[in-house]
Amino acid sequence: MTHPIILKIKKEYTDYYHAYWELKKEHPDKNPNQLNNITREKYLHNESADILNDLESLRSALSDYYYYMFLYAKEQGYEIDYSEDGVAKKISDEEQKVLDDRQMVTRLAQSVGFGNEPTLHPSEIYFNLDDDLDIHHSNHVAYKVVLKPEGFPVTLYGLSLQDIGEEISFAKAIFKDFVSRATRHMPDLLKHKVPIKLAYGKENHAAEVYGTYIISGQTIVLNMRNLLEEVKRNKDRYVKVLAHEMAHHYYFTVLNSRQRNFWVQAIKADYTSGSIYNFLDDMKDEETLGRYIDRIKKIDPLKYLQMSSIVNVEDIEHQKKSDFLARSKNYWVTFSKNPVSVYGSTRPEEAFAEVIGYILGFGSNSILPLLLERMKVVIPTIKIAKEKPMLNRIASLERRLASLEHILSLKTAGSHVKLPPRELAELTHISDKALDHAYHYGLSKPGTFGYKANEQSVLHAIDVIATGNTNIEAIADAVHKGWSHAFFTVKDPAYKDPTVVDEASGLTKGQKKYNSRLALAKTSYRSLSNDEKEKDRVVARAVLEWAEENGWVGGLLP
Fold this sequence. Notes:
- By secondary structure, this protein is α+β, with helices and mostly antiparallel strands.
- The chain has 4 domains: 4-124, no CATH class; 144-253; 257-401, no CATH class; 421-557, no CATH class.
- The chain is built from 20 helices and 10 strands.
- The protein has helices at residues 4-26, 32-43, 51-75, 93-111, 164-185, 224-230, 235-253, 257-269, 289-299, 301-308, 313-316, 321-327, 348-362, 369-378, 390-401, 421-439, 449-465, 472-489, 509-521, 530-550, and strands at 144-147, 154-157, 196-199, 211-214, 219-223, 271-275, 332-336, 500-502, 507-508, 556-557.
- Strands 1-2-3-5-4-10 form a 6-stranded mixed sheet. Strands 6-7 form a two-stranded antiparallel sheet.
- The longest helix has 25 residues, at 51-75.
- It is globular.
C-alpha cells in the first residue's frame, strides 16, 4: 500500500509540474526564475499543498529510519561499514531501498528548488517506502531511537552514535525503577502510559528545566542533557522528575474538578504570613545570606524550604543581614507552613506533582505528614510507608534537601489546552449560566449554536489563560474569537426561519439573525461597542475564576 504522504507529494508535484509548463507556454518571454517565482507562490506557499514541508518531513523520517536499521543490524550481530562522510559502503537490499528513496526526495526538492525548472516527470516518481513508516513534521535530528521500556512509548532524540548503547540501557533502567516504585506506591499511575520524549540535544523547547508536561499533546519531555550535566546518573532523581511529570498528567486528566479543587483549597489554606525578621533571627551579622541558607538547610530543613520560597537566594546570596533588610521592600511575607519543596511552592499543581515525585523518588518519609494526609484524601489508593521515628525522617529530609533544585525562576511557554470532555462540559455550562445571570438569555442546549458558541468561547479563553495571562481584556478578546469561530463553522437552523420581518426588502427573520451575527463576527474585539465587550468579559471572568480554582492557569508545566 502506498504511504499517504507519497500520494500527497505526487499530487502536489504533478500540479506544480503541469502549472509550470503551462505557464511557460503562455509566457515564452519569461525566464525560468520568473516562471519559478509565479509557480512557487501558487503551489509552494499554502497550507493545503506544502510540498517543501512534506519533502523535508519525508527526508527526516527516512534518515531516522536508516539510522534505526543500523542499530538493529548491530543488535543482530552484523556490522555495516561506513566511510567518513557517512555513506554506507556495505549495505543490505533493504537499506539500499531507503537510500534510493532519499535520492528521490533530493531530486524532487531540486525540481521545485528556487530558479530550477521541474525536469523530473511525474511518471518517474517512485518510492519503496512502507506504509507503516512513522512520518511527522519536525526538525530533523541526527539520531532518534524508539523504545517501549516497561510498556511506555519512549523516543530518544539527539543522541550521538557513540552514546546510543549506553543511553538506551540507562533509559531502560530508569523506567524499570519507576515502574517498581509506582507499583509499590501508586499503581494507578501506570495505567496512563503517555508518550515520553528524552531530549539529548543542545536545543529543545524546555532548555531551562529538567522536565516538561505538554498539556495539549499530553506528552512528557525530559531534558536529559540538563539532567546528565547536573545530577549525573542518580536514578532516584530521574525517577523523581519522571514521576513529577506523570503526576501533572494525572492531575489534569484523571482527577475530577472536585478532587483538584480540594487540593487547591488545601494548599491555599496552608499559607500564612509573618515578619521576615522571624526567618533571620539566628543569622549572624557577618554571615552572607547564601551561607545562612546553606547552614539552616542542615539544621532546620522546614525553615529552609519556607525561606527559599520567599526570596530568590541566587540574586542576593552575597548580601549580609543589614544589607538585605535595608533593601527589602516588604517585611511582612506570605509563605507555606508545610511546603514540599522550593519549586512546589510556586503553584498548587506543582505541589501536587512534587509530592508524588518525591514519594516515588525518595520515599514517603521525605514528605511532611500534613501533605501526605492531603494526598491520601485526593488519592485514597496511594500507598504511604509507615511513620519512621522523627530523627530518621529528619535525616531523610536532609538527604533529599541536599540535592534540591535551585531553579527559582523558570520560563514557561504557552500551550493550547485540550480540555477533557468532562471539564469542557462543566466550563461551557458555567459560561452559559454567567450569561444567563447577566442578560437572562436562558440556558442553551447541547447541539445548538448557543451551546457550541459557548464551548468555543471557553476553549479560546483557556488557551490564553494557559499561557499564564490573566488579563481580563486579553481573555475577553479570546472569548470573542471563539464565538466568531463558532459562527463561521456552525450552521444554525435558525437562519432558515422564513418569517418576513421587512416587507420592503423581503428580509426574513433567519436572514436578519445571520446578518447581525456576521457583522459581529467580522468585527474585532477592539472595535466592538462597550456593551458587546462586556458580554465577552462576563464569560472571561467566569472562565478565569474556574481556571484559578482548578489549577488550570499556565500551559507548559515544568
